[in-house]
Amino acid sequence: MLALRKTEAVPGVVLTETAVPRPAGDEVIVAVEAAGICGTDLHIADWTGGYEAMTSAMPVTLGHEFAGRVVGGAGIRSGQRIVVRPSVVCGTCPSCLGGRFERCTSRTGIGIRRDGGFASRVVVPAVNCIAVPDGLDAEIAALTEPMTVAAEAADRAMIRPGARVLILGPGPIGLGVALFVEASGATDIVLAGRDDAARFACAHALGFPATIDVGDRPLAEALRTGGQDRAFDVVIEAAGVAALIPQALDVLDQDGLLVVVGIHARPASLDLTRLVRAGQTIRGSYRAPIATWSRVVDRLSAEPERFRRLITHRLPLSEALDGLAAMRDRSGVKVMLDPQMDMVAT
Ligand SMILES: [Zn+2]
Ligand SMILES: [Zn+2]
């Protein structure tokens, strides 16, 4: 079968034929119906740093945001439609024993350190599968993983009704955060980005008209020029740009909360005395607890057409490199790959 794989610890990925995997006793085999390309996949493909730990697992099939149908193995009936939590936990570390599986210290990521969903078939532990309703399209179901990341960031932002919220980085996570903070009661939501025309168009289509192109200006100046000079109750950083962290504190209100969900290649430098005097809080947000997954599936099922607007490209797996290019040049918001399209073609 065709698979998009990382074979060496250098820039590049390959589309290659690989053997159809076989499930072990506690695993199922999944026919992948839709798999989203994540910013992480682009970092891994371009080998920009931060993923050296996956070298020992290569060659490995990428893809950690996918939905499909169980077609074999134990524990789940064949035909069941599912999404897959990519985090395979050890079950024996103190976090796992305490029931905080999202904090497992010896985790293996599906699509990072074991074969993932950029292939027509993938083998995953049965316990990692979450059932989805038959009425939910595969491409919407495949948004579950990134939307759990967005929902977790929104939860950690502890939004109060009427909150004024700034989201830095209008990618799929930032846009998802907008949808979830709105549901939590935020009424004044601004998205800021840079060279993000396609993503701003998506924000507008989702019902978030307030977008600010920061360009090369300081964030506070760009917001002021855009008529957004009032301080924010909450800022959520989903851009992964370290230089934005002190600038985010500049536009955050006294006692405000900055939630950082972006993955940063560089350390940030902060004026901590200012932070102390302003009583501001910085909080990280990463993997969502398991309970969030069914909540997100319910939300996707309730508003599929709204979430579908996040998907800008639908491609067969054989055109995955074009999909990565659309992410790289920022013309894509969420790019969905469909491995079954290639099966029909051949
Ligand atoms: Zn991802
Ligand atoms: Zn563990």
UniProtKB/TrEMBL annotation:
Record's protein name? Alcohol dehydrogenase
According to the entry, every stretch annotated as the Alcohol dehydrogenase-like N-terminal domain falls at 26-134
| GO function term, MF aspect, one | oxidoreductase activity
Q: Which InterPro entries does the record match to this protein?
A: ADH-like_C (IPR013149), ADH-like_N (IPR013154), GroES-like_sf (IPR011032), NAD(P)-bd_dom_sf (IPR036291), Zn_alcohol_dh (IPR050129)
Q: Does the keyword Oxidoreductase apply?
A: yes
Source organism of this protein record? Phreatobacter stygius
Ranges for domain Alcohol dehydrogenase-like C-terminal: 172-301
| Entries under Pfam families matching the protein | ADH_N, ADH_zinc_N
Keyword tags: Oxidoreductase
Source species, domain of life? Bacteria
